[in-house]
Amino acid sequence: MGLLLKQLHIRLYRLKEVIFIKIKELIRDGNSIVFNGDYLDIYLRKEYFKKGLAEHRGSYISAFGMFIFEIRTDKQVKDSADGVKHHFKFPNKIEFNYTEHFELDLQLEGDERKEKYDVFRLTNGNQFMANVNIEQSATAVRDFVFLFHSGKLPSFIKYNDIIKLYYDVLDSNKTNLKSNSLTYEIIISELCRYNKDVEKPYRLALDKDPGPYDYINYNLKKLPRLNSTFASLTFEGIDDSIVSSVRRTSQGGTEKESPLERVIKY
Known about the structure:
Layout: H1 6-22, E1 26-29, E2 32-35, E3 39-45, H2 46-50, E4 54-57, E5 60-72, H3 74-78, E6 84-97, E7 100-106, E8 115-123, E9 127-129, H4 138-149, H5 162-172, H6 181-191, E10 192-194, E11 197-201, E12 215-217, H7 224-227, H8 229-233, H9 238-250, H10 259-265
Antiparallel strand pairs: 1-2, 2-9, 3-5, 3-8, 4-5, 5-6, 7-8, 10-11, 10-12
């Protein structure tokens, strides 16, 4: 059932502010947000469907609301010209309907190489959000945690906004992970590495005055490879661990002693 909490009112107000004021082609129609323009393309990575972050629901797509979309005029489409790209940062599932569907290999903002995308094209009258009243579900929390812990958080998220997104998804879904803010901040500080030196957490590069996007969201399972040979070899993915350990040793990389290593030694 669609439940609107006080906290959710706040989030939807932010959403309303972003969409209705800055994006004139998206208008409110009752409880829906409707596209009023020529073409709007929503870019969803193929893995969204493989990982349960998106699914087909009849004539609608249900997708986790963190993606890039592009608005183009009829002339821009005919000329194969770029339109205006927007970042959608709403850490909950939304549903939209569409007119056309494409499968393309694209290199969008933040992609290191071409990725496989499902592109859903909306035309005038299609619903960008079928219902602004979300269904509370712990699944949305799981989806956000999966994105962040697997190193797949969209690159258009500012470093300081990650903690806000954590609380947005928890509050709007009335979910309590029984952890305090310090726990989330420690996780964020370890999984976000300085893009010019991934062995260094982003927080330790603040003296170099990095920009809010100058971090790499690192995969939690690959993190031990950055810390020590012992941690790497005792974790999963032995082939990659051996390669990273040999490289670390040959280059004289720093080693951080793990608690388990101290127990074994002493």
